[in-house]
Amino acid sequence: MSQDALPGPDGLLRCPWSLSTPEYLDYHDHEWGRPVTTAAGLYERLTLEAFQSGLAWITILRKRANFRAAFAGFEPARVAQFDAADVERLMADPGIVRNRAKIEAAVHNARIVADLGEEFSTIIWSFRVLGRPRPGPEDWRATSPESVAMARELKRRGIRFVGPTTAYALMQAVGLVDDHLAACFVPQR
C-alpha cells in the first residue's frame, strides 16, 4: 500500500487507508481527527477503540450502530447502571464484539466517566498535540509520549483496557493529534 496521499473517487487527495471501503472514506472525511469534546462522545470513542484492540477498525465501524444500541447510546450514566444481567445480554448480542473483558471494562469505565462528568473531557484534552506532527509517511507510529502519559493517567483514575496504543488511536479519533498526511485535503486544525 502506498503511504502517500492518494486521490479518492472525487479526485481529492486523502490518507491511503481511507480508500479501501466506503465506511473508511466516510469516517476519514467526516470524523477522524475532528474534535470531540463531550464526556459522552469521548466515552464512546474510548470504548470503541478498546473493542477494536486486536481487530480491524472496519469491524468496529460496521458494528457501530449495534454498539450504540447495546450500550444505551454510550450515555455514561446509563451504562454505569448496567449489572451482571446486562453483561450477559451483551455477551449474547451477535451485533457487537462479544469479549467479556472488554464488555466489563466498558461498564466499569462508564461508572468512572459518569462520576467525573465533563472533567473527563478536561483530562482527555489535556493531552492535545497542536499542529500536524506527522507531515509524511515516514512518521507512521502507534504511540507517542502523550499517549503513554494519557494511558498512565487514565489507568491511575481506574479506567480499564487502555494502553498507549489504544490511547493514541483515541487521540487520533477525537482530534487530539492530527495525523492526516500533509497532502491530505482535510484542513490542518
Give an overview in words.
- It is a single chain.
- With 189 residues, this protein is mostly helical.
- It has a single domain (39-174), classed as Endonuclease III, domain 1, CATH 1.10.340.
- Helices cover 51% and strands 2% of the residues.
- The chain is built from 9 helices and 2 strands, in the order ββααααααααα.
- It has helices at 22-30, 39-52, 57-70, 76-79, 84-91, 100-116, 119-125, 145-156, 164-174, and strands spanning 6-7, 13-14.
- It has a two-stranded antiparallel ribbon.
- Helix 2 packs antiparallel against helix 6 (100-116) and helix 8 (145-156) packs across helix 9.
- The two termini are 26 Å apart.
- The model has no long low-confidence stretch (mean pLDDT 93).
Question: Mean pLDDT across all residues, rounded?
Answer: 93
Number of strands: 2
Q: Which structural class best describes the helix and strand composition?
A: mainly alpha
The percent of residues in helical segments reads 40-55%
Number of discrete helical segments: 9
- Indicate the low-confidence ranges by residue numbers: none
Q: What is the annotated CATH architecture?
A: Orthogonal Bundle
Task: Name the CATH superfamily assignment.
Answer: Hypothetical protein, domain 2
What string gives the helices and strands in order? Answer: EEHHHHHHHHH
Main sheet makeup = 2 strands, antiparallel
Strand order of the largest sheet: 1-2
* CATH class term: Mainly Alpha
Question: What is the 3D form?
Answer: globular
